[in-house]
Each structure stands twice: as C-alpha cells, then as structure tokens.
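Box 3.1 A note on notation
Throughout this textbook, protein chains are presented in two layers. The first layer is the amino acid sequence; the second is a token string describing backbone geometry. Keep the layers aligned when reading.
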Amino acid sequence: MRPAPASKRYDVIVVGGGPAGGQCARRLSQEGFKTLLVERCGSFQENNYSSAGTILGFVEEFQIPPSVIGSYWKSLTIVSSSGTSYRWRSDDALGVVMDFGRLKAFLAGEAARHGADVLMSHRFKSFARKGGRVFASVEDSLSGETSVFEARFLVDGTGTDRAVMRQDGGLQDDYIDMVGIEYLAEVPESCYRPDELVFLLGERWAPRGYAWIFPMERNRLKIGMGQFSRDARGPGPALRLCVDRVISDHLRLPSYKLLDVHGGRIAYSRGQNDRYYADGVLAVGDSISAINPLGGEGIRHGMRSADAAAESIGRSLRSGGADLGSYESSMRGYFGDQWRQSMRIAQVFYQLDWKDSQMDDWLAKASRWSVERLMGVLFHYRFGSYPRLRWRLFLARLLGW
C-alpha cells in the first residue's frame, strides 16, 4: 500500500476500510477508477473485532485467498440452557471462519494493487459539496494535520457510526441497539474443534440474545455473546459474565490464554430506513443495516452492497450522470421480505421473555430438520412458502399466545 496519496483529486473516496469499504475500493480500482480508501486505524489488526463466520460460497464469490481463512466448518451445534446439544453435520465443508483483520488487509491490498491510494491512520472529519464535486476533510491521527480530498463520489463505509451520512442529516430515529462482547482465547488442543460452529441459546447463556464459539486457526477460539438492548429491562447481566459462564459451564476449559477482549454496539434500522445516497454520497455495509438481525451475519451482505454501489458509481462515472437510485432499488430488492421477516423472528427470539423449556421445545422440533434446511433458515432466510403466517402461528403456539 502506498504510504501517502499522490493526488488530491479522485473519482471516488471511500471512508472506512471494513469489508464493505474495502470491497467497494477494490471493485472501483479494478475497473480503472481513481480511488482513495481512508482508514482510521494504523493497522487492520487494531480492530480485528468480527467473528467473521459465513457460508462456503462466500470464498468463491469474492475470490478470498486461503491466507484469510482461519478454519472451515462442517457442523453446527446449538446448545440450550439445559445443556442439551443439537448438532447438524455435513460430510463436506459448509462454511468458513475468517481472520477479520487479514480480510480487511487483503481487500485494501487488492485495491492498492489496482492503483488505489490507501490512507491509514486518518479519520474522516467532514465534507462539503461544490460544483458537482465532493470535498472530504480527513485528519491525520498522528500529526493532527487536516487534508482535503476532492472526488465525484464519496462512500460511507464507517459502519453503524454512519459518520458521513450522519453529517448530511436525514437519518431515521428507528434504530435498535445490539450490543456484544467477544474473547479471543488460545485453548488446549484437546478442547479445540476446528470444524464446528456452536451457538448457545436460552436464559442461562444469553438472555435476549445468543452466545457463540467460533474456531480460528492454531487452537484459537472466538467466544462471544450478543443481545438486543431493551431499556425497559435495564442492562441485564453483564455480557462478560455470560461469556465466562460459557467458558466455565459449557467448554469447561482446564486452562486458556486470553489474547483479546473486544466489544461494541450496532445500531440497526428496524424498518431498514437508512439513507442510501444523497447527491454524490452513498452508504454501504452496516451504514445501511446490512447485518441480518436474526443470525447477525453482516460481512457477506456488506460486501454485496459494496459491489452494487460500485456498479452504480461506475455506470454514473462512465455516463457522466449520477444514476444512484439503481443502487438503492437493487439493495432493497436484495433484502426484500425475507429480511423483514428475519427482523420479526429476531424480535420474538431475542426480545421476548422466553422460558428455557420453550426454547428446548423449539430446538427439539428443529433437531429433526436436515442440515440443508437449517442452513436455509440461518443463512438464506428461507422460512417456508408462507413465512409470515406460518412463523406467526408456530411462534404463537410455542409461546402460548
């Protein structure tokens, strides 16, 4: 990557070097557009905070190299509060767990290889419009100096901060907070299962949310817990205590080395009312709530939004116009009713006061599903031919409504 931009004028400036921002810069630079990628951290390992688990097709779709992949998984286990484990297994790999930091570095490196400038340790401050151009001010985190860069388009890849779009105003006030914490732990080889994703549901493990155990390479596990925030009930049990309980009661590790602890908050627009674009400015990834509320997967969807944005930007740059409406219509079609249904089901699962016996009852029913059906629900949001009616009646019976 180049240490400093050689120019102040670009076709596109992308703010935020996460998967969506990095993929957008990668695509635009591959198409020959002059691109600047601005990242606030000095290294992509500084905010290596995602569990980064996804389906196997992701690797081919985005041409991800083996060096980014921490492990391949072929089984999925769900554990209830009673300690009962329900496992679905395939003979072949179903998905991967990536090293999030290496993924971001790879995407930025690919963008640089195709001619993009990558500016590290710089934080977005503000932008202005003039004469059909966008002027972005960024601050060097080390020196405190401010530089101004000019482009035809500015892309907000700052995640749920929505730093660029927030400055432009017009954001909806319908966000649901999802908070989470995750440990990166080195465990004994006897406790490491490299091909299994584990989710834990129920009041014992994760009130109003779910906990997880994802395998990384070299006997490392990512162990975390996330929950929907609901102010009426207060903060609830400390998230860190929930993760400690998973380690002590489920994993029963004789010893482990804690390598990192990180956490954060995601603001998800419950009606997907995010602002997608406005006069030369576009948002991608978590800035348009591209994280699915049911399973929490966001990288794959964020990178797809980046591809759609890059396509719309490229078409506009080639034609000399600003056909950005096609980007929003493309993504709203991609999300569709399946995502709205995911939100409804997530609210039932994570915001209602489930009894552990009810959760066990549901898991016992789901245990009869094939692994293909489970993957369809969790990763492709296929809820049946009549999802709204079928799931509402099923959940009503289950919860005794």
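The radius of gyration is 21 Å. The CA atoms of residues 35 and 116 lie 5 Å apart.
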